[in-house]
Amino acid sequence: MTIKVLILGASGQIARHAVQMLGERKDVEQTLLVRDPKKLTSTEPSNAKIAIGDVMDKTLLPQLMEGQDVVYANLAGNVDKQTAHILAVMKAKSVKRLIFVNSLGVYDEVPGKFGEWNRNEIGQYLPPYRVSADLIEASDTDYTILRAAWLQDEDEVDYQITNRNEPFKGTEVSRKSVAALVTELVMSPSLLVRANVGVNKPNTDGDKPAFIE
User: Fold this and answer.
1) What average pLDDT does the structure give for the chain?
2) Quick check: pTM over 0.85?
């Protein structure tokens, strides 16, 4: 059986890893939505087709959503408005499975000095991400929300997860690790359904991520 996955924000750094990982699967068909074709790497795998446009496009998104099994969203900016639109189109097209990358700190769940540092650094940007998570949790989708730690570019897959109501662990995680988890979720649709989890690299506790000076 072929799994059809629509990737929103497919030129993002996490998504690029996921696209390549899913490109190794013969039983996957990918549709990549990107706003800026200049951000394409020209190394997109053969099981991926590309659509140029905006996730808020009221004509394009329903067309791309038709017949999809999984939606993976890796977005930034007005994620609250984007989320509302995605959920409405998914409902209209009877698509249930949603994987959505969010951010640590939306529930003030990051403890200690790192939590204080994180609030000071990105707290002002988090309200739309909290609204996004609330909208998804209130929907009837089979969602998985991934609240990723501070992202770095190590060539490694090493992560652990914390649940919705647990204190966040660690300070950082590689983009490749988040992509590996996304890939696992695409390939195992019943995994972490209606779950909202933090994602971090084990043993990276500290006052801030080690790669930040």
Assistant:
1) 96
2) yes
